[in-house]
Amino acid sequence: MKSQKQTHQKLLVISQTGVLMALLIVLQAVTKPAGQLVTGSCVNAILAVAALTTGLPGAIAISLISPLLAFLLGIAPQILTVPAIMVGNTVFSVLLCLLRDPADSISARQIFAWLCAALGKFAVLYLTVVWLICGLLSPMLTDMGILKGPMSEVLSATFSYPQLITALIGGGIAVFTVPILRKALPFQLQQ
After folding, report:
1. 59 contacts: CB under 8 Å, gap ≥ 6
2. What is the C-alpha separation between 65 and 117, in angstroms, rounded?
3. pLDDT tens digits, residue range 131-140?
4. What digits encode the pLDDT tens for the residues 13-22?
5. Residue 158 C-alpha from the chain's centroid
6. Which domains does the chain have, with CATH numbers?
7. How many helices (H) and strands (E) does the chain have?
8. CA–CA separation, 39 vs 86, rounded Å?
9. Is 104 helix (H, G, I), strand (E, B) or coil?
């Protein structure tokens, strides 16, 4: 009996992860013309919903695949930033998943988890892209022809405070909608 329940739970996580991944692909493609604020907020909302519903396996899978999709869709400005985005997304998802309120209620603990996750993602992206790539490594990357023209300034602007804002918006959307989804859906979302 326990084995059947475990199989059901695994299938539910795989199904939810697949649905969220499909939604992520559609949202990235459809919102691309709307810019970083809209697309980034949508991506962060999907990451947060995954963290709150599928747990770590689904959230990490989406965190790692999302930047590759963004690059393929022309949303991520350079392949150089993809690993940094992967790490930032993973930090966001892991912090939200580990610090969240187990009841997924809108509580002080859930808000704390959301804020820590957003700040964690922002810190990782700021340190890896703005400080390391565009700061410390910029002369070397420019000499190698990897960072051309104003790309360093564009990356610095893209991977600084807008990342915090989109993580706050997307995380907030998820934190406030997941409890409603749990009540509204005819099947129980994974906890």
Report:
1. 47, 50, 51, 93, 94, 96, 97
2. 19
3. 998 888 888 8
4. 888 899 999 9
5. 15
6. 2-184 (1.10.1760.20)
7. 8, 0
8. 16
9. coil
Q: Are 53 and 178 in contact (CB under 8 A)?
A: yes
Q: Where are the alpha helices (DSSP H) in 73-160?
A: 82-99, 108-125, 138-143, 151-158
CA–CA separation, 174 and 189 (whole Å): 14
Residue 70 · residue 163 · CB < 8 Å: no
- 105 Cβ contact partners less than 8 Å away, ≥ 6 residues apart: 179
Distance (Å) of CA 1 to CA 5, 8, 54, 190: 6, 11, 22, 18
Q: How far is Cα 79 from Cα 82, in angstroms, rounded to an integer?
A: 5
Report pTM.
Answer: 0.88
